[in-house]
Amino acid sequence: MSYDFENELARWLKNSKTVVIAGIGNPIRFDDFVGVKIVQDLQGHISKNVHLIECETVPESFMDEIIELKPSHVLLIDAAIMQLSPGEVRLFDADKVANFPAISTHMLPLRVFCEYITKMSGGKLALLLIEPKKFDFGEGLTAEVEKTAEKIVKVLKKLLP
């Protein structure tokens, strides 16, 4: 059975009021940039209840900004090696991140980042992770990851408050 991230995301976003979407990634490491690319593609296409943040490689630098927004939901979007096919997507609730100690932002362990944001904002937090094809130096997304990014943008435009 294939994973249906759209239904998972719809369930997670249910009753959302103020949403922060934080795109994480490095613009010079091919598919690692996917989180930021999705945020860029959402600019101008969503309501004022959704706050878009391009975190690039330092999401921890945006913790205060996220907390001040008092979001009901915080969605972090990033590339992550999960041993899936390139472009495959998974949604993880923040409480599941404790089970993945190897997942990290670039400077701060992701578990610590998620715990802090959840505690200080009172909002729900999830990670939308995309399997990359290429992580080495270079610009632009691979075809598989670009196709997934386009689908995620389309789904978020439909689901966001």
Provide a descriptive summary of the structure in words.
There is one protein chain. This protein is an alpha/beta fold and 161 residues long. It has one domain (5-159): 3-Layer(aba) Sandwich (Rossmann fold), CATH 3.40.50. The protein is built from six helices and five strands. It has a five-stranded mixed β-sheet with strand order 2-1-3-5-4, sandwiched between helices. Helix 2 packs across helix 6. Mean pLDDT is 89; it is low at 101-106.
Strand content: 15-25%
The shape is globular
Give the second-level CATH assignment, the architecture. 3-Layer(aba) Sandwich
* Order of strands across the main sheet: 2-1-3-5-4
Give the domain tally.
1
State the fourth-level CATH superfamily: HybD-like
Q: How much helix, percentage-wise, in residues?
A: 25-40%
The main β sheet shows up as: 5 strands, mixed
Report, as a whole number of angstroms, the end-to-end distance. Answer: 29 Å
Oligomer, anyone? Answer: single chain
Q: What is the succession of H and E elements?
A: HEHEHEEHHEH
In short:
The protein has 161 residues and is of the alpha/beta class. The chain contains 6 helices and 5 strands. Mean pLDDT is 89; it is low at 101-106.
Provide the fold topology.
Blueprint: H1 5-13, E1 19-24, H2 34-42, E2 50-56, H3 63-68, E3 73-79, E4 89-93, H4 94-97, H5 110-121, E5 124-130, H6 143-159
Parallel strand pairs: 1-2, 1-3, 3-5
Antiparallel strand pairs: 4-5
Helix pairs in contact: 2-6
